[in-house]
Amino acid sequence: MENGPRTAPLHLVGIETKIYQPRIRQMTVEDGPVFQPFDEAGHMGDGYRPEGDVVALAGLFVAERAKTLAMLESLGPGDWARRGVWPEAEVDLAWVAERCLSHGLEHFAGLLILHQRLERFHAPGVESRTAPLTRKGVQFGDKADSGFPRPRPTFASK
Questions:
Q1: Which domains can be identified in the chain, with CATH numbers?
Q2: Is the model's pTM score more than 0.90?
């Protein structure tokens, strides 16, 4: 499978519909559900089509994210502490909401970086209106950049 413009939106749709939505739903009705790792390769292999419409995929992600947000907005104050066992650690619904947001932002930042790299080809002579993204003095995308960190949650015992 190629890593093209349809890869990120397809990945985001899969994470939204096969991880966040069902796990949020399950955590609101079950005590301490245990979740299995997501089969990313299987999802991407089953759903990726080079001829797919990237705009339609982006629209699908926006629609699915709206469903996820509606689920989160329906939670009561006591629901945020409900717990489940993610493949990496025991988490609560507040962490799931934060992870959902940060996951999307990671990919949007990646798209911004791609735009910055390609802008000179698509609009020669136009000065970029976006400031370069940097982390600790390293320009994102440089060889020294190892990508986005993926911190793992740590929780105090119950």
A1: 7-131 (1.20.120.450)
A2: no
